[in-house]
Design goal:
The protein has no helices and seven strands. The protein is an all-beta fold. The strands form two sheets. The protein has a four-stranded antiparallel β-sheet, with no helix packed on it. The protein has a three-stranded antiparallel β-sheet with strand order 1-5-4, with no helix packed on it. It is globular. The N and C termini lie far apart (40 Å).
Length: 82
């Protein structure tokens, strides 16, 4: 049996954070115009999000939405990776 090995082609940067309990999802926007939809993980009635991005990508904004799809919180600028 052959064992597959995976090597990350580049370094990644991870972001993690606590979100409001009313957050149904978060949209992460990047400098190149792409977005990612993140669903919070619940732990002890608290919501957390996490995102790993490749080196060179720049996260520019996070917007929190409630269950009705209404935005209610955002953050910008996001500190760049070091």
């Amino acid at each position: 049996m052959q064992r597959a090995a995976y090597c990350w082609p580049r370094a990644i940067t991870g972001y993690a954070g606590l979100v409001s309990p009313r957050t149904a999802y978060v949209i992460a926007s990047f400098a190149d115009g792409t977005t990612r939809r993140l669903t919070p993980a619940l732990l002890s009635a608290r919501g957390y999000i996490a995102l790993a991005i490749p080196h060179g990508a720049r996260l520019i904004r996070l917007i929190s939405y409630d269950a009705a799809g209404h935005p209610f919180a955002s953050t910008t600028p996001v500190p760049p990776a070091k």
